Amino acid sequence: MPYQRNIVSVIKKRIEEPRKFMQIVVGPRQTGKTTAVSQAVEQASLPYVFAEATKGESTQDWLRAQWYQARNMHEAACAPAVLVIDEVQFVPQWQAAVKTLWDEDGRHGTEVRVVLTGSSAAVIYDGLNESLMGRFEVIDSTHWSYRECREAFGYTLDEYLYFGGYPGAASLRFDEARWLRYIRSAIIEPSIANDVLQIADVRRPELMRRLFEVGAPYSAQEISYRKLLGQLDDKGNAATIAHYLTLLSKAGLMSGLVKYDPKLLREKASSPRIMVHNTALMTAAYGRHRKWLLAEPDARGRLVESAVGAYLINRGIAEGFSVFWWREGNDEVDFVVAEKEAVTAIEVKSGRVKPTGGMSRFMVENPHARMLVVGAPDCGIEAFLNGDVELFR
User: Fold this and answer.
1) Helices (H), strands (E): how many in the chain?
2) What is the CA radius of gyration of the chain?
3) Is the pLDDT of residue 234 over 70?
């Protein structure tokens, strides 16, 4: 039986409920959104229409035709019908058409239960906030965790660190050249070209691509905007780089974590700590020396820290907490996670040499915070990535 993620039961439960909200399944490319929705509608035992939008071909008229087909199913069966539009962001001005059709069904009591999926979180959320307020619920399809890859594909910890959590690439890990081509051609390039450049306002696409190529190998490291600009060899500016990092983050590729400050006074000015959302992206961007990521202690340490950071970022997306890092002078803490008043400082013992004492200073300045050391005897790296450790008290 194919592996089933937890979101499958969430989707199934919601489409079995009486029509109240449309369901929006959002997440990075190749995280299994389509598979999860397919599994859910098959298990729900309701008539359904499943249609995939195609860039440059699917129009508002095409979307209306799918919706009318679902309405016809509902009338013929005298029962609720489900409409799934996969990759809805490829339909121009989809928000207006969906709003009109959804409101028509509401007025007429038509039980068409709607599920939309999208890979471009920036565009999906913008559309929801502008046009569809109060009509939807969001279900996040995040990158696969270590637990999921272990259960579904038998990953070891080192395999997960190196090959990351893309389900479609799991079977290719025994042929690294083929795996690498898949990551580059099926994930990185389409994520940038289709999920960001074709939709968001990016005036300098080559700078965006170069930013990812330069930034991903620096995962788990602080890098100033000035240094990034020097590496990019381009006449950009810090504001442009910060904006592009935000877009890459919304595409599920790479974030620039800002320093934790309860007063949020230094957030915009601070140097970011680059963090990939999936360690496969770091491995693929590392170049011909990528084997060192497991073999050389300092490189392995950054890989472990990147896996921990990716885990926190993806869990934060699903659960609604924020991920930062912290440094004062030579004292630093790898990660700080915050959910309202609850704060946890996380240090990763990963084998690489780095300054000590940061955690003690942070706890003095933030006495309400919880301290967590990943890699300590009571909080092993594998247990943490497996989801066995509580983040907040």
Assistant:
1) 17, 12
2) 22
3) no
